[in-house]
Amino acid sequence: MNPWFLAIRPRTLPAAAGPLLIGNMLALPLTKFSWTVAVASMICALLLQIAVNLANDYFDFKNGIDTEERVGPTRVTQSGMLAPYKVRNAMTLCLLLSLTVGGYLIWHGGWPIAILAAASVLAALGYSGGPYPLASHGLGELAAFVFFGLVAVVGSYYLQAGNTTTAAWLLGCAVGLLNAAIMLVNNTRDIMTDTKAGKKTLAVRIGEAQARVLYQALLYLPFGLIIAGFLLGQLPGFPVLLAGLSLIMARKLSSDFYQGSGAALNPLLGKTAKLTMMFSALFSVGLIF
């Protein structure tokens, strides 16, 4: 398999695409809706996700976290498939490209988008690198919730509408929780190796048993949020009903997570990302119709 394909980790890309899809489809009925803005925001989000993946690959190798004992999918830097400087340069290129596309979005959305763009780039670099790596201090799930939930959904809606709504915040929280679950799977799988490396992820801090409980909460709370949004008159019923169909997949993933550990959790990483995309796609289809 092409090492660059492994490096960008395509199975995780729904984490970036899902929230942008919901945010833009929520704004679709607006007269000022722009497909150019929608596509640009999606491209920018995907580039940032790829940059995060490359940064994680590079910095975890440089910090001695990825070793031969790793049980997760192949890391191209640690395995020697790609030279560290190549992964670092690819990460830099993705960040520069995201800033190029982001420049148009900043021009369109003004200073609030500029602040979000700066915070997103800093988070991409600071997730695994810098003086206080977020992933090594139990903040990975929180970062996923904020940037691939609230910032992505509310930010993409703001780009189209020029304001925010309660619906956007509710959906941002819902998708953010699902994306935090992706991070939790990754960190629970790596508890053994992260503990040895001194990487204090949330899973390391709370232990595997509590991580299983938290994973359930992260999967089920989004459905509670959208139902509450419907009951409060903030979300339309048909999208809520359609998105609710993905609860079937959530229940299966919850069961599988309880039964597996270590390398057995690898398939759940991509499947949890697919749940995010399924939830987002079904809700978006409901919004369209």
UniProtKB/TrEMBL annotation:
Sorted UniProt keywords: Cell inner membrane, Cell membrane, Membrane, Menaquinone biosynthesis, Transferase, Transmembrane, Transmembrane helix
One BP annotation, GO: menaquinone biosynthetic process
Gene3D superfamilies linked: UbiA prenyltransferase
GO cellular component entries: plasma membrane
Pathway: Quinol/quinone metabolism; menaquinone biosynthesis; menaquinol from 1,4-dihydroxy-2-naphthoate: step 1/2
Domain of life of the native organism: Bacteria
EC number per UniProt: 2.5.1.74
Gene Ontology MF term list: 1,4-dihydroxy-2-naphthoate polyprenyltransferase activity
Family, similarity comment: Belongs to the MenA family. Type 1 subfamily.
General function of this protein: Conversion of 1,4-dihydroxy-2-naphthoate (DHNA) to demethylmenaquinone (DMK).
Stated name of the protein: 1,4-dihydroxy-2-naphthoate octaprenyltransferase
Native organism: Shewanella fodinae
